[in-house]
Specification:
By secondary structure, the chain is α/β, with parallel strands linked by helices. It has two domains: 280 residues, Periplasmic binding protein-like II (D-Maltodextrin-Binding Protein, domain 2), CATH 3.40.190; 95 residues, Periplasmic binding protein-like II (D-Maltodextrin-Binding Protein, domain 2, 3-Layer(aba) Sandwich), CATH 3.40.190. The chain has 14 helices and 15 strands. The strands form four sheets. The protein has a five-stranded mixed sheet with strand order 5-4-6-13-7. Strands 10-9-11-8-12 form a five-stranded mixed sheet, sandwiched between helices. A three-stranded antiparallel sheet has the order 1-2-3, with no helix packed on it. Helix 3 runs parallel beside helix 4, helix 4 crosses helix 12 and helix 9 crosses helix 10. 48% of the residues are buried.
């Protein structure tokens, strides 16, 4: 049985509710309403007593949500009280990867989760009654890393190696899909040109002997390259796959307690905004989070500046058409390799995106839902699904934080950082 990688940090503390004191948000009048300094309209909408009673009757109060290192907003939104301010009680259960979150979902131990594209596809194929309500840190970097003295300069150099090299990877993760797509593009095949060994991200950080390299995602890539200095990058995800993290929740909650779902998403969006408003405080809070304590503050700082704040704060919108088309490639690969109970077609994938809650959040903020996500530049020559992709805006190509709001971003007046913006 595959090793379960639930974090063992602090025993029971690792599965305790990550809560904190709730301060009264600083708010000021702007036009027709009031906003916190970080742009959230006041007052907060509250979860109804009826929905709380229904959740308690199901044994789902507090709401239990699985997450993993590198995902932003949640480590800030919970201790800042953005959930409790809406009457939502939540317990965040930490894991190291999406496959372990899937195990917890299958066992009924969590009702919501944040995970990558490949494990989410597996949930759909298993007819798990869930829906994705938001993207989580899209276009997150994944990379192939080799020891500093390795002769490999690119993936193409693997061809013809004898014996066939072995690479460490988290099986069933988004890293596996990226790596398989990259290998296919270079005419390489697992089992013929190389082998894979499944390990956890912390195991991979050690660059175990006997491996030609490892496949990691952020923040582990920074840990390898800039702090441990035990690896060198030879390839990255961006030409082969637009990664999507998924914030999903039980469809039963959507159907019976939709205000719980709205409160969760609103608090998540507020966490994104607060992190953009006060990155210094967000870094300090995140370094105390059970999932991020092991990382140096400098790495946590990069999570904030590069994963949360680099793109416009509209990055979390679940663009149904784009993501269902891109992620259908994940399903196609899994199906061809006998890894799914049933194929997940693009229409089926699209049916697992529930955008109405995001639409309501955007309406509250006065933001316009963009036609394309903020990492797609104007006049981009690429086409979703046709790889390799030409360059787009990611942590390797975007040198400064995108401005927001710009003309066309708003549909009504909005305030942020003490400044009022007109539509």
């Amino acid at each position: 049985m595959k090793r379960r990688d639930v974090m063992k940090a602090g025993g029971a503390a690792a599965v305790s509710a990550l809560t904190g004191a709730i301060g009264m948000p600083a708010a000021h009048a702007q036009g027709a309403g009031k906003f916190t300094d970080w742009g959230w309209p006041q007052p907060y909408e509250q979860v109804s007593a009826k929905s709380v009673a229904w959740m308690k009757d199901k044994g789902w109060w507090p709401l239990k949500m699985g997450s993993q290192p590198a995902f932003t907003s949640l480590p800030v939104a919970v201790p800042k009280g953005f959930m409790k301010s809406r009457g939502l009680e939540i317990e965040v259960v930490p894991f190291l990867s999406g496959p372990a979150i899937n195990e917890a979902a299958a066992a009924g131990r969590i009702q919501a989760g944040m995970e990558g594209n490949l494990p989410f596809t597996s949930l759909i194929a298993n007819d798990t009654p869930i829906r994705c309500i938001a993207a989580v840190n899209p276009v997150l970097k994944h990379a192939t890393l080799v020891p500093p003295n390795s002769p490999l300069k690119s993936l193409a150099d693997i061809k013809g190696m004898s014996p066939a090299p072995a690479f460490g990877i988290v099986a069933g993760s988004s890293a596996e899909f990226y790596f398989q797509e990259a290998l296919r593009t270079h005419g390489l095949e697992v089992g013929r040109d190389l082998t894979l060994k499944s390990l956890t991200p912390p195991d991979l950080l050690l660059m175990p002997e006997g491996l030609a390299g490892v496949v990691q995602w952020q923040p582990y890539i920074w840990d390898h390259l800039d702090f441990r200095k035990n690896a060198r990058q030879i390839d990255a995800i961006f030409p082969y796959n637009m990664y999507m993290g998924n914030l999903w929740i039980s469809k039963e909650i959507i159907d019976n307690a939709p205000d719980v779902v709205q409160a969760l998403l609103d608090a998540y969006a507020e966490g994104v905004l607060y992190t953009r408003f006060d990155p210094k405080d967000a870094i300090e809070i995140t370094t105390r989070d059970v999932m991020h304590k092991r990382f140096p503050p400098e790495i946590v700082g990069r999570l904030i500046t590069k994963l949360n704040n680099l793109h416009k704060p509209t990055w979390w919108y679940p663009f149904r058409d784009l993501w269902s088309h891109e992620n259908a490639r994940v399903s196609e690969w899994l199906s061809k390799n006998g890894r799914l109970k049933k194929p997940v077609t693009e229409p089926l994938y699209a049916s697992y995106f529930e955008t109405r809650f995001a639409d309501q959040t955007f309406a509250k903020l006065g933001w316009k839902v963009p036609a394309v996500p903020p990492w797609i530049p104007p006049n981009w020559s690429g086409k979703i699904g046709n790889v390799p992709y030409p360059a787009y805006l990611n942590e390797d190509t975007l040198t400064q934080q995108q401005a927001f709001p710009e003309p066309g971003d708003l549909v009504k007046a909005w305030s942020f950082g003490g400044r009022s913006y007109a539509a």
